[in-house]
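Homework-ish question, so no full write-ups if that breaks the rules, but can someone show me the predicted structure for this set?
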Amino acid sequence: MEIDPFIFRLSIFILSIFVGYYVVWSVTPSLHTPLMSVTNAISSVIIVGAIIASLAGTNLSVFNQSSIFGFLAIVLAAINIFGGFLVTQRMLAMYKKKKKDKK
Amino acid sequence: MISANLLAIFYLISGILFILALRGLSSPETSRQGNLFGIIGMAIAITVTFLSIDNFSSGFLYVLLFLLIGGSIGAFIAFKIPMTAMPELVAGFHSLVGLAAVFVAISAFISPEVFNLGSAGNIKLASLIEMSIGAAVGAITFSGSIIAFLKLRGLMSGSPITFPGQHILNLLILISIIILTYFLCLNQSPSFFWSLIAISFLVGFLLIIPIGGADMPVVISMLNSYSGWAAAGIGFTLENTALIITGALVGSSGAILSYIMCKGMNRSFFNVILGGFGGTDQTSSKTSKEQKPVKSGNADDAAFLMKNASSVIIVPGYGMAVAQAQHALREMVDSLKKNGVKVSYAIHPVAGRMPGHMNVLLAEANVPYDEVFELEEINNDFANCDVAYVIGANDVTNPVAKTDPQSPIYGMPVLDVEKSKSVLFVKRSLSPGYAGIDNDLFYRDNTLMLFADAKKMTEDIIKNL
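A: Not a homework solution, just the prediction itself:
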């Protein structure tokens, strides 16, 4: 009897949900907005699927029915990756600690 | 060309880096490093995907080109966007993740051989189910986020849109999605696949239109969660660990945020999702109320009160974001501090239109984050505070939530603003807040109403300090 590889992926998935659960509870509420923008950016790792999809064409025709959807997905995911990480960076740079008051 | 095993290990590494990126957000000091981990993780995932491709056709150049186009658009948006527009930006980004998931699923359905999923018309059953889930959830995320975006941007009315039979319609559509998926698996006909996607777009739309503006924190978090599940669905289809891990992380992150937001409003998740809360019908019944005395004051009174206080707590809300008053507010606090007044900020979990909205705006105005406190941390301090300055918040300060079991917001955690010696309440008029409930605070003896625009009033106070 062999275990279906699907079960391994399911295990990774379920364990990751638990990891996510504990990690996200430890996020301080004041950083909830950056949390949303960074999760946005990382979920765009879907771009790896888009890259594979976009290379469905051949040397003769780069664009076919299926690769066009791949290219479109690349643009969308790239907007998200760059936009998401950069806007998070911009927000996080604003969080500053109190300066020691000089009196 | 790197081996499939090595590829999988690299994807695992990016997954771990993404976990560290979220872990970094546990404190502002580690957060910047965390974001860097996230960027490295993404770079690894993209690079190894390139390396895994064995035939470098001319298509590769187009991949780079489109990556660059998307990247420049994203970077441009990230630098240009004002901080007050964060909620709609995040909603917009969610819609893109959703749509990207739909596109990848479509591509996998048309050319399954590219992804080793079988051949067109003869796709492996498990893969077909996974890609249907990915596509359906992606489509719901897309159209739902578009509606959320329009509502937040003010391009669409923020008031809930309801019609009779709405819930039954949604239920029927949901059932039809399941039936469509079943038939799709049975004969793999493309027409079922396309109808599945079309109907899912409709669901996203119908799901969000009945939800009102102030419930947006829940909606955004929920769509955040959906975008994660869509990514995970695609991850299963493509057998990609990085996507599965990330999808699970994002999915649970959004779910937790929705939970926190619902708790902040003392409402169940379903109550929010079924929508219709805060409609105009509730306000009309309140008009018969007898006129109660209200004390109102001007900037001079407010400045006098605060200057002579020893401690002041600021309670910001969505109105502060609308009026862009955060910078003026910080200037006011600076001059108060020069007078030796101790100032802190109290933030309710659902203040604003997205989780953490107020914190970002205050950070933008250079307010140090260690002066900003959450509800539980600061609520006891109101009793010892001289002045509470409520700027743009309303329902989250309403003492009725603690006293009147008849009130729709009864049981909702509120800031105990009324316990401070005096309350300065900046508001344009006496109109009730989003929930359509009269705020008891307006009529308290220790409340001084300041009828003006939040920014203008704050600036006037600075002049009088």
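Now go work out the reasoning yourself. Hint: The beta strands of chain B are 118-119, 122-123, 311-316, 342-347, 372-374, 387-391, 422-427, 447-451.
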